[in-house]
């Protein structure tokens, strides 16, 4: 999720609200660090009376304060497909972006945008919703043999880059399948193969679904030489993407529903 005052709105009003929330979080980190140590503190924080800006999204605020406090985290990164912009006012386009995931202990089991990018990267509703669904899928699809139960509640904090710079805008649901894969590895402290990318959306029940017009991502996929395998849902998506990539492509396309 990202910080909101009301249902997502863009422009200067949202920036001012976000800036005000960041200032409040920075003040909390500077004056009341003892209130943000662990899971029990998180419960008290959720029940406390906060300013309106913070009540709108207490989970985001909790993670922002702990970010300012410099709490330890474990980091990993993967490539994700997004509709994004690298410059202000640039028309979003299909691209393969670097998705950094930081795992923080003592959280509430949520996924939030890194507060350091809250004023730089505008997040569209479908993208944010796909990350929430991806986290649910990642938590429910763990292999039982690898752990006695679900992983402890951890917060996942994300950033998204293209050409080593934070994107100014991200949108669309195409990142859902790959984000679920990255979140799963992050929750269990494993390192995902960076040469594999899932091109699929995630339903509210955690099911991976086919992508509309997967061929639109072909030029961006071909630009990323480190990619070797792209997984899609359904033979129709597989055929469309293989045709768009061409017979000499370095990328293998696999159907997750195939034999």
Silhouette: elongated
Cα radius of gyration in angstroms: 19 Å
Estimated share of beta-strand residues: 15-25%
Helix content: 25-40%
Got a strand count? 12
CATH topology label of the largest domain: Ribosomal Protein S5, domain 2
Low-confidence stretches: 1-9
What is the strand and helix layout of this fold?
Elements (H helix, E strand, L loop, with lengths): L11 H20 L7 H9 L4 H4 L2 H12 L4 E12 L7 E13 L5 E3 L8 E2 L1 H16 L13 E9 L2 E2 L2 E3 L4 H12 L8 E3 L2 E2 L5 E2 L8 H6 L5 E4 L2 H11 L6 E4 L4
Parallel strand pairs: 3-5, 4-7, 8-11, 11-12
Antiparallel strand pairs: 1-2, 1-7, 2-5, 5-6, 9-10
Protein model, in words:
By secondary structure, this protein is of the alpha/beta class. The chain folds into two domains: 1-71, no CATH class; 73-255, Ribosomal Protein S5, domain 2, CATH 3.30.230. Helices cover 35% and strands 23% of the residues. The chain is built from eight helices and twelve strands. Strands 1, 2, 3, 4, 5, 6 and 7 form a seven-stranded mixed beta sheet that branches. The protein has a three-stranded parallel beta sheet with strand order 8-11-12. A two-stranded antiparallel ribbon has the order 9-10. A hairpin with a 5-residue loop joins strand 9 (201-202) and strand 10. Helix 1 (12-31) packs across helix 4 (58-69) and helix 5 crosses helix 6. The longest helix has 20 residues, at 12-31. The chain starts with 11 loop residues before the first helix and ends with a strand.
Q: What keyword list fits this structure?
A:
259 residues, alpha/beta, Ribosomal Protein S5, domain 2, 7-stranded mixed sheet, 3-stranded parallel sheet, 8 helices, 12 strands, 23% strand, elongated, disordered N terminus
């Amino acid at each position: 999720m990202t910080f909101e005052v009301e249902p997502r709105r863009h422009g200067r009003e949202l920036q001012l609200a976000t800036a005000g929330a960041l200032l409040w979080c920075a003040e909390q980190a500077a004056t009341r660090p003892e209130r943000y140590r662990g899971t029990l503190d998180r419960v008290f924080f959720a029940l406390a009376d906060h300013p309106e800006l913070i009540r709108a999204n207490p989970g985001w605020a909790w993670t922002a304060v702990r970010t300012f406090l410099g709490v330890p985290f474990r980091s990993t990164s993967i490539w994700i497909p997004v509709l994004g912009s690298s410059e202000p006012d640039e028309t979003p386009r299909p691209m393969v972006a670097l998705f950094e995931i930081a795992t923080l202990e003592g959280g509430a089991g949520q996924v939030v945008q890194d507060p350091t990018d809250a004023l730089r990267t505008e997040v569209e509703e479908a993208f944010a919703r796909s990350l929430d669904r991806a986290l649910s899928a990642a938590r429910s699809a763990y292999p039982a043999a690898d752990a006695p139960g679900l992983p402890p509640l951890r917060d996942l904090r994300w950033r998204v880059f293209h050409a080593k710079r934070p994107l100014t805008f991200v949108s669309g649901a195409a990142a859902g399948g790959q984000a679920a894969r990255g979140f799963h590895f992050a929750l269990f402290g494993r390192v995902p193969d960076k040469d594999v990318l899932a091109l699929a959306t995630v339903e509210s029940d955690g099911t991976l679904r086919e992508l509309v017009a997967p061929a639109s991502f072909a030029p961006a996929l071909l630009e990323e030489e480190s990619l070797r395998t792209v997984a899609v849902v359904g033979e129709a998506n597989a055929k469309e993407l293989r045709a768009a990539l061409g017979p000499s492509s370095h990328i293998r396309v696999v159907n997750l529903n195939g034999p």
